[in-house]
């Protein structure tokens, strides 16, 4: 096993910079997820780590060794792709053992490794099947099996679940996490899905437009987003963002652009007199707690909790109530805001002030 470092890594395609100086330190055995919207550069970063794309500047290290110019086969990594890329004319066993055969591993050793991986992934009874005889989830497992048999220093995953339906995706999320807990191999995983990142990662790297916006554990990013981008990207339904300023007479009040007063606890001095964004997660709007009155716009029962859009002053707010709510569009509800969980962001630079 080995750690991985990106040190001021840059990449341009022609004159167009897509990775603009990225620093990431991945510890030995860590499960790190690179997440961000389409086009932010996460796949390019992974492909550079794999050796499938060259590096314009900076250094990538695996196990302390600079690999910038090392060919992919010498990096001791194994990659699992979105489309699995299984060989259709080979059985599961042959697909899984193929790289070992290429490397001229002794037959008994290869069989042992395939059997071990098949055991871990629950593929024992499917070894003689062809890919066309497998479900999407089973194919994805074979693709992972092919990576496991190589016993690499680092696993790379590029959106491995995006071709699966919603239910299977949730099941495979848990399987991959369990696999990592078992093998403890350093893993770098790319996705655009923040829920995948939140549920699976030890550490998340949020990327946007070729730069790292924040690195942290899932709950650090959720509770302490560094800026507006991370606050808005992590969490579903999304954080409410309302423009306004602190009341100059009372820094415990936030006055929105339409004149509504919202509560603030512990506003820092740096927030005074600035254009701000009030960041409020949907679950910190509390039902029947009085104080504020809003109009129900949309109500979405999920069974366990109720998602609701509430018009408060001039803002439509996402709310999540952990109960069943009997209300109709047009009805008025009393709510309160848990001010201790409100964030204030600088409207111009986007950084979080509290
Ligand atoms: P997605 O989730 O859509 O795959 P991503 O975050 O993985 O997005 P990349 O695939 O890394 O993004 O692409 C980053 C940027 O680099 C994009 O603007 C893309 O158009 C550009 N890009 C990627 N590969 C090339 C290439 N071979 N030549 C030119 N531009 C490229």
TrEMBL record:
Signal peptide: none annotated. InterPro entries: AAA+_ATPase, ABC_transporter-like_ATP-bd, ABC_transporter-like_CS, ABC_transpr_MalK-like, ABC_transpr_MalK/UgpC-like, Mo/tungstate-bd_C_term_dom, NA-bd_OB-fold, OB_MalK-like. Coiled coil: none annotated. Pfam families: ABC_tran, OB_MalK, TOBE. GO terms for molecular function: ATP binding. PROSITE patterns: ABC_TRANSPORTER_1, ABC_TRANSPORTER_2. It is found in: Cell inner membrane. Keywords: ATP-binding, Cell inner membrane, Cell membrane, Membrane, Nucleotide-binding, Transport. Residues 4-234 form the ABC transporter domain. CDD domains: ABC_MalK_N. Belongs to the ABC transporter superfamily. This is Sn-glycerol-3-phosphate ABC transporter ATP-binding protein UgpC. The gene is ugpC.
């Amino acid at each position: 096993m080995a750690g991985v470092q990106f040190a001021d890594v840059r990449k341009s395609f022609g004159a167009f910079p897509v990775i603009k100086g990225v620093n990431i330190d991945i510890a030995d055995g860590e499960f790190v997820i690179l997440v961000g919207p389409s086009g932010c550069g996460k796949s390019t970063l992974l492909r550079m780590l794999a050796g499938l794309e060259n590096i314009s500047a900076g250094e990538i290290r695996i196990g302390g060794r600079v690999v910038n110019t090392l060919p992919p086969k010498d990096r001791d990594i194994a990659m699992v792709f979105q489309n699995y890329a299984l060989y259709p004319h080979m059985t599961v066993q042959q697909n899984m053992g193929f790289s070992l055969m290429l490397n001229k591993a002794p037959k008994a050793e290869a069989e042992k490794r395939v059997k071990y991986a098949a055991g871990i992934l629950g593929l024992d009874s499917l070894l003689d099947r062809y890919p066309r005889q497998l479900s999407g989830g089973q194919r994805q497992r074979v693709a992972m099996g092919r990576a496991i048999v190589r016993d690499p220093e680092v696993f790379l995953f590029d959106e491995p679940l995006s071709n699966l339906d919603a239910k299977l995706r949730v099941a495979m999320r848990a399987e991959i996490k369990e696999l990592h807990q078992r093998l403890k191999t350093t893993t770098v995983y790319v996705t655009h899905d923040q829920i995948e990142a939140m549920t699976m990662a030890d550490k998340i790297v949020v990327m946007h437009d070729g730069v790292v916006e924040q690195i942290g554990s899932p709950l650090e990013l959720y509770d302490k987003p560094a800026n507006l981008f991370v606050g808005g990207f992590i969490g579903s339904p999304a954080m409410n963002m309302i423009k306004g300023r602190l009341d100059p007479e009372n820094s415990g009040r936030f006055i929105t652009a339409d004149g509504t007063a919202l509560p603030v606890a512990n506003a820092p001095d740096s927030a005074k007199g600035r254009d701000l964004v009030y960041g409020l997660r949907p679950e910190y709007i509390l039902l029947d707690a009085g104080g504020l009155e809003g109009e129900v716009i949309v109500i979405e029962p999920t069974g366990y909790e109720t998602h609701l859009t509430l018009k408060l002053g001039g803002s439509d707010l996402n709310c999540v109530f952990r109960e069943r709510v009997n209300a109709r569009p047009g009805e008025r509800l009393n709510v309160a805001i848990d001010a201790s969980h409100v964030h204030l962001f600088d409207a111009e630079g986007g950084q979080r002030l509290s």
